[in-house]
């Protein structure tokens, strides 16, 4: 066992966290209001506290000290001394062991206990009372690490935004029920990087894997007591630590190895990150880290009522990114993942919170300014979830250049359009064109719109066409959680059915929606499992369901229907790659003319003439045609024509000019139908009910694009 000195030497405040330099470990932790911070050392065998040192120096609000001869593997935590004065926002309690905000690894789970609360849980004085029980036995311990890893020739794929196809996936849900060679541990990063998984992503044309939170998170106590858990992971405990539940051996190198394998295959990895709140909850929540170190600084407090926390997140607390040290922690965390794990980008949960200054949301806030000027982070893919429950919380279209944004307008409009709702043609046209009406300013490009039909939060694609109502009873909240407004339809029967007519219709609508997603300008995002008909049985809020409800059922992928849909999605991706007009790098407004009589984008009715004002507002109008044309740097001209018919009847449509020959690339109602050149005298085509048709045009009769299709 290590022999400890009587006291720590001063050390340095420069690097926060526990930093090993080969001769010892420097400890540094921020707290503006603490009066003393102690470092506690624990025995790795039985987790007993075996030494305690006062951090001897306090420099620029950083407490620091140096422990000579300490090495990676050392277990530690902090205790903070100061006023317990909730009325003024201070909740110091040295009886509570605290996690280092900059910890790189934790060992042991949170064993929920009343001792983790700074106050007596059942006291009539509530959080104004004080709890003197030691929380250390029920707390994870921080571990000093050495991050050295041999990346060899790993290169970030850096897929251009306009070529990007995202798949959103949950590490555990994606891999738990997938049988693979070499027997990687299901539900872990090992399985994520398995050859079969990479081959599946390749087949689908996925360039970028967006993972639900993989930073260390903690399930809420009330969920554990109900036999549930926080499955999604939007409840961060430690911003620098990979979630232990996704590590087969406990080593973070498993994540690095998975990323290396994905990068070698040309696939990017984007992390969904939660910097808007922590798992400590409201002022009545536990004291695990930030609350105990400096509640009044780490969290936003209600002005004039500092006992209570501002709850712009709907999760009980809001991180105070207006404070430079809290902002520094977030930026340091992002750079750590980018540099030490070669992460390709970040999707920011509840992103308006990150840009909300005391006076409101500001796209020039400190957070956005810091990200955009950062030489590392500004080169990564940056994606905002542009809404939160707070005041002025819907900010789609208002994020600064450099950020892409989840587009819920695309989701809702596409669902309503293919459900057959009236007067959707104008809105669906704007979404197909990359939502330039909302995003085309300050030099932003179509890729700024992350188009989606489904995501983890809500119905799967199969459930969008199978359920008119949510069915969340398994969550134990009387079925009232999750959104009641899903823009879905069951097409005749609520839930599963054996009726072949209903199943055929549901399949048509699913394929039409998927094609709309893949053939619209912007960045398409698929939800893992939609490619083979994954269902959650009508549950649109599976945040607490770590079970087959949420795990992908790969048996469905092996069914004839699943194989058909998987092949169809792969074909959509291939067509998108082959036709630049479907993935334009710049907005099309009809002002540029690739051919003298052909603007880059045009909208047509069933008679092949440009849409008139009355057609855009016609309640009974359904068929919509969009012709897009782009010219590549080498002079190659690509022209496509997409016709959408959400109605219940087939429609005969006249093809617009000029002279040339069309090739039918895709008919979503006949997904296995091969590409078919149409004769030069063919000027009409039937667009089936609930169907989407895509054609390519070759001036002068050249069948360019047929082979690519």
From TrEMBL:
Residues 164-576 form the Glycosyl hydrolase family 13 catalytic domain. It comes from the Bacteria. Keywords: Glycosidase, Hydrolase. This is Glycogen debranching enzyme GlgX. It comes from Komagataeibacter nataicola. InterPro entries: GH (IPR017853), GH13_cat_dom (IPR006047), GlgX_Isoamylase_N_E_set (IPR044505), Glyco_hydro_13_N (IPR004193), Glyco_hydro_b (IPR013780), Glycogen_debranch_GlgX (IPR011837), Ig-like_fold (IPR013783), Ig_E-set (IPR014756). PANTHER family: GLYCOGEN DEBRANCHING ENZYME (PTHR43002). Signal peptide: none annotated. Belongs to the glycosyl hydrolase 13 family. The keyword Acetylation does not apply. Residues 472-498 are annotated as: Disordered. Pfam families: CBM_48 (PF02922). The keyword Hydrolase applies.
